[in-house]
Design goal:
CATH architecture: 3-Layer(aba) Sandwich
Shape: globular
Helix content: 40-55%
Mean pLDDT: 94
CATH topology: Rossmann fold
Largest sheet: 5 strands, parallel
Low-confidence stretches: none
Number of strands: 10
Number of domains: 1
Number of helices: 12
Order of helices and strands: HEEEHHHEHEHHHEHEHEEHEH
Distance between the termini: 83 Å
CATH class: Alpha Beta
Length: 383
Amino acid sequence: MMWVLYFMAAGLLGWILTEACSRLYMKTCGRYFAWQPHARTRLELEMSALPQLEPVTHFEVNSIGERGAEPPSASENAFHAIAMGGSAVECYMLDQKAEWPHQVQLQLNQPEALKALGVDRAHVGNIGRSLMACGPLCTMLDGALRHYESVDLIFMMVGSSDVVAWTEQGGPADYTPKEMDAHAIFRAHPLGPFSWNPLSSAFRRLASAGYRRWKKPVEHRQRVGKSVQKNRDNRAAGKVLDVMPDASPMLDVYRENLTRLITIARKKAKRVLVVHTPWVDRELNADEQKYLWNFGMGKASEGQVQEYFSYAATRSFLRGMDRVTHEVADELGTAQVELLPHLDLDFDTFYDELHLTPKGCREVGKLVADAIVLDHESRSSGA
């Protein structure tokens, strides 16, 4: 009996020491990641809802929390860029090789582009996350960049999530964005709360991270996109309001946070590029309206939406956002690239009012890569 008690006491003491060391490690060495490092997901799409996309796609995260391939080592003569923004950058339902930041990487690895950049290899890591407005993106970027020795370029496509967040609240005149905590902003971080229960302990979090790094398990998801069709059906059955509330309160918040975001990016990156958000900026016929599902009053993911802003109102909000983007980038002397004038504004390029198809991603990837090379050459020549 005594040996049993000794064994139990030793086990308890061992667990306490293990958990205490785990928490100390998380506190002193823990990192912040936009995505869970080494995460792998295979998605089977609901093709009736997303006929413009591929039936099976993959979402893979590298060792530093970027969607994309492994980053270059410090010894490589490489160009390291980061793409950031909301769902239009994340490209969740697009395959790893189809999303437009990867298309930028493909273009930058062409011999002519590598020669212009003066490198042997170009890497683009994607830290875009759905529904991340500029305020939370400031927190994400500030945390994630702590672990980079250097970044050659950060390019951002932002603003539409700010408009979505405002319309979810009904387009209020007295607008205060809802705060997001670290658990919502980062997919992996060193913060608690932890408990002595093994299921919610720091040790379990470290062990899970080690398992993903070692085994690289693949999560399988089926019928991805069925919620998109549900949201489209809800919009078709809901009430569309042809009202035009004053967007100034939202635009003022966006202006302030975009200024902060560019300032944070400049502290770490050698260069910053603002990529203007594209959308289907034209009138739509009745058949085309069936693709719409964003900009409702309430959270679509929680089934709260019964009223939606008309697309005429939505376009006005997005134009206001784009105007502020221009103004802030001009004021800060930040390079910009326009997309709307160069894209076909149809539903072969977009699969809804905001998100790109593989065809649209290829076009955007080429435009952004050309702008990156042009900006690099211009700055290198002192122009």
